[in-house]
Structures are given as structure tokens and as C-alpha cells.
């Protein structure tokens, strides 16, 4: 089992970057401390090549990121001030997600400690996302003829609007997003399947919806790989999530996904997505439960 991690996450960052980033240091540290993973399972991805990025994103957008020429408005939409380190981090994340997807094709399961940058469009960034790592990965796997069909299962509380737009009309990539109906982004794109959720949804109805929808999708799409965005901003403790899913319910969600895919022999590439609970321990514990659940079900 290989897990994409790079110490670029731990480098000094501007103060307004720190809170969303600190979990990427704490997740592997906790998994190592608990003996869930070993240091040998962590690997440092290289940066994604320019031609790989340009198979998904436009040249003008890539040049703005590369050359640090984003406008003030573009930076506001992203939610971060531009910096070379931030751009480099996203390039590394993109390559890490490619690498763990390739690993999943060979071994069943792969994790990126970061990733899930689903608000990035071909020509712009939004919502803390500059480059869309699952979109870059899906295009890479298809162009390299590693797979014929990809299912992106996005269970972050926010709709994967960038992902939906990038693959609109593409019959090789099926986009599924189960998200808060009244949450960001307030203008939704159209995924191949959207399941909007009312505010305050609890474990039972949430898990029932997922448990009914996902098996039907697997039967319909017959994917060669599933890219699973396992955001923990569905938690009741999340500052922005608006749902009332408990930590136990979030772990049951992961069990539903991993059990179904393992039973069908479908490789799964996992990226962490969002999590904005006030207590960082709530975020880290929930993400670590995703690792533990997947590793246990896939037999690692």
C-alpha cells in the first residue's frame, strides 16, 4: 500500500493558508503513531508535468499559476493569496493522485493525504482549489489507456462543480456528487448524478441515500476505477457543512464505499477533500478513520 505525502505540506506558509493545511501534517503523523501505516508506505510525489496539466487545464490559466500573475479577483475566488509554494503544492498533489491511482490499479487501493481539489475548472480556480487533481488523473489514465471508464464519487459536502463542468458530455468519466443543497457553490454545475441534501441531514437518511445510489451506479457505469473524494465536512462539527452526520456515520459512509468496491473488485483512489471543524482533532480523526476503514476492508 502506497500513500502520497510530501513535506511541502509542512513548509512555512502565509498565516491565511495554515488552518486548511495543517491537517496534512497531522494525518500521517497520527497514522504512524497508531501503527496503522509505516514510513515505508509514504512516498513523495514529483511535480506533475506541464503537458499532463494541460490535458485538463487551459494554457492561459496554467501560465497565470506558473508565473504568479493571478488578478486580485481570481485570488479572492480561490480564497488564498497566490504564492509559488501554493502553486507547487497543487502540482505535487496532482501527480500524487495520479500515482496513487496507478497504484490502485495494481493493488486495489491508494491514498493521497491531500487532494480532492474539485472546485478547479479548466480555466479558473475556486474554493481553495487551483488545479483539479481527480480530473487531471482521470484524463491521464484515459490518455495512457490504463482504463476505459472512470467514476468520480464525490462525497464532500460541497458539490464538485469544477469536476462536473470539466467532464460535461464526456461518456468516459461519470461524475457523482452527493452534497449540501444549500451550501457552496451556490451556483451548481450539473454532474452526471447529483444528490442534493437538505440542511441538518442525520446519519440514517444520509447513509440510506448513499447505500441505495452507489450500488446502482456501479452496475450502470461499470467503472475500471473509482476516484473517491472522502471529504469530512459532512460532520456535524463542521463550521460550514450544515449537515448533522456523526463521526460514526462518516466512518459508515466509508465502509459502504470501500466494501462495495472491494466486493466488485474495483480499484479505488482516495483523496481527502474538505474538513473545517473547529477542533482540528475532529478533522484528523475522521480522515484517519477513512484510511483505517479502507486498509482494513482491502486487507492491508
TrEMBL record:
Residues 17-288 form the Histone deacetylase domain. Gene3D superfamilies: Histone deacetylase domain. One of its GO terms (molecular function) is hydrolase activity. InterPro entries: HDAC_classIV (IPR044150), HDACs (IPR000286), His_deacetylse_dom (IPR023801), His_deacetylse_dom_sf (IPR037138), Ureohydrolase_dom_sf (IPR023696). The keyword rRNA processing does not apply. This is Acetoin utilization deacetylase AcuC. Belongs to the histone deacetylase family. It holds the Pfam family Hist_deacetyl. It comes from the Bacteria. PANTHER family: HISTONE DEACETYLASE 12, HISTONE DEACETYLASE HDAC1-RELATED. Keywords: Hydrolase. It comes from Chitinophaga eiseniae. GO terms for biological process: epigenetic regulation of gene expression.
Amino acid at each position: 500500500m502506497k500513500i502520497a505525502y510530501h513535506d511541502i505540506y509542512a513548509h512555512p506558509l502565509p498565516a491565511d493558508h495554515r488552518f486548511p493545511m495543517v491537517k496534512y501534517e497531522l494525518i500521517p503523523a497520527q497514522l504512524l503513531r497508531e501503527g496503522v501505516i509505516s514510513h515505508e508506505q509514504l512516498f513523495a510525489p514529483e511535480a506533475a508535468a506541464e503537458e499532463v496539466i494541460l490535458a485538463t487545464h487551459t494554457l492561459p490559466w496554467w501560465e497565470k499559476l506558473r508565473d504568479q500573475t493571478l488578478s486580485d479577483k481570481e485570488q479572492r475566488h480561490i480564497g488564498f493569496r497566490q504564492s509559488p509554494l501554493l502553486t507547487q503544492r497543487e502540482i505535487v498533489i496532482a501527480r500524487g493522485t495520479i500515482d496513487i491511482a496507478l497504484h490502485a490499479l495494481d493493488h486495489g487501493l491508494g491514498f493521497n493525504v491531500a487532494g480532492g481539489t474539485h472546485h478547479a475548472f479548466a480555466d479558473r480556480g475556486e474554493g481553495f482549489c487551483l488545479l483539479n487533481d481527480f480530473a487531471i488523473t482521470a484524463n491521464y489514465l484515459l490518455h495512457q489507456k490504463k482504463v476505459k471508464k472512470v467514476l468520480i464519487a464525490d462525497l464532500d459536502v460541497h458539490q464538485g462543480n469544477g469536476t462536473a463542468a470539466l467532464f460535461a458530455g464526456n461518456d468516459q468519466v461519470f461524475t457523482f456528487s452527493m452534497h449540501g443543497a444549500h451550501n457552496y457553490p451556490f451556483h451548481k454545475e450539473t454532474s452526471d448524478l447529483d444528490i442534493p441534501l437538505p440542511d441538518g441531514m442525520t446519519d440514517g437518511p444520509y447513509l440510506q441515500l448513499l447505500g441505495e445510489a452507489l450500488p446502482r451506479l456501479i452496475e450502470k457505469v461499470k467503472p475500471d476505477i473509482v476516484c473517491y473524494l472522502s471529504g469530512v465536512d459532512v460532520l456535524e462539527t463542521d463550521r460550514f457543512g450544515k449537515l448533522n452526520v456523526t463521526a460514526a456515520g462518516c466512518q459508515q459512509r466509508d465502509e459502504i464505499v470501500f466494501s462495495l468496491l472491494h466486493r466488485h473488485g474495483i480499484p479505488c483512489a482516495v483523496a481527502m477533500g474538505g474538513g473545517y471543524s473547529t477542533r482540528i482533532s475532529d478533522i484528523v480523526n475522521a480522515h484517519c478513520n477513512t484510511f483505517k476503514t479502507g486498509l482494513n476492508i482491502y486487507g492491508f
